[in-house]
Amino acid sequence: MKAVVVYESLWGNTAAVARAVAEGIGEGAVALPTKDAGADDLAGADLIVAGGPVFAFHLSSERTRHDIAEHPEPGAPAPDLSGPSIRDWLDALPSGTAAFASFDTEVRGPFGKGAPTIAKELEEKGYRRVAKPEGFIVQGKYGPLKDGELDRARRWGASLRAAL
Ligand SMILES: Cc1cc2nc3c(=O)[nH]c(=O)nc-3n(C[C@H](O)[C@H](O)[C@H](O)COP(=O)(O)O)c2cc1C
């Protein structure tokens, strides 16, 4: 079984969740940032899991990424903007029929503002949903993840394998 967990992550929280989800899925699963998840990397995948952070109540956008880069809060950690947003990655993704699941990271409810958008995009491209969109919680604007979230991400990953 081949599974690819693709993520956008400016400060590492979504990356950590993605790695934990891949661990939970187990053998055959890798976590890749958007810039490393090209068509060749996805070829033959049975399961695609896609995740990104919520900014301003939505998936990140060119505008929020631009604002974060150009108008950082005093003391804000430097963001990693080296790869495309998950939104741009989804736009470039060819149609397919693999199973998928989606997640986001965010500080507060209503949860899952980003993950449902990812799910909608993937469904429109023909992919098959195997789980409800999931949200993982960070404490504070830049993290860290709330205690227990990485364990929950591993369990969620294991449940995705079981759902295939
Ligand atoms: C400019 C900005 C806007 C944010 N807006 C929201 C928001 O609307 N809702 C929310 O729950 N979290 C919000 N957050 C928290 C982010 O979701 C959190 O930083 C994200 O999970 C970090 O993921 P990353 O480390 O993978 O980039 C915001 C953070 C920043 C810096």
Structural key phrases:
binds flavin mononucleotide; Flavoprotein-like_sf; Flavodoxin/NO_synth; single chain; Flavodoxin_CS; Flavodoxin-like domain-containing protein; Rossmann fold; globular
How many structural domains? 1
Order of SSEs, N→C? Answer: EHEHEEHHEHEEH
Shape: globular
Q: What's the total number of strands?
A: 7
Question: What is the rounded distance between the termini?
Answer: 10 Å
Taking pLDDT < 50 over at least 5 consecutive residues as the criterion, the unreliable ranges are none
CATH superfamily: Flavodoxin domain
Percent strand: 15-25%
CATH first level: which class?
Alpha Beta
Radius of gyration of CA atoms, rounded to a whole number: 15 Å
The structure class reads alpha/beta
* Overall mean pLDDT: 95
Bound molecule kinds, no repeats? flavin mononucleotide
CATH architecture: 3-Layer(aba) Sandwich
Give a quick account of the main beta sheet: strands, pairing sense, barrel closure: 7 strands, mixed
Q: Could you describe the 3D structure shown?
A:
The structure is a single chain. With 164 residues, the chain is α/β, with parallel strands linked by helices. The protein has one domain: 3-Layer(aba) Sandwich (Rossmann fold). Strands 1, 2, 3, 4, 5, 6 and 7 form a seven-stranded mixed sheet that branches. Helix 1 crosses helix 6. The longest helix is centred in the last third of the chain and has 15 residues. The mean pLDDT is 95. Flavin mononucleotide (FMN) binds next to helix 1, strand 3 and strand 5.
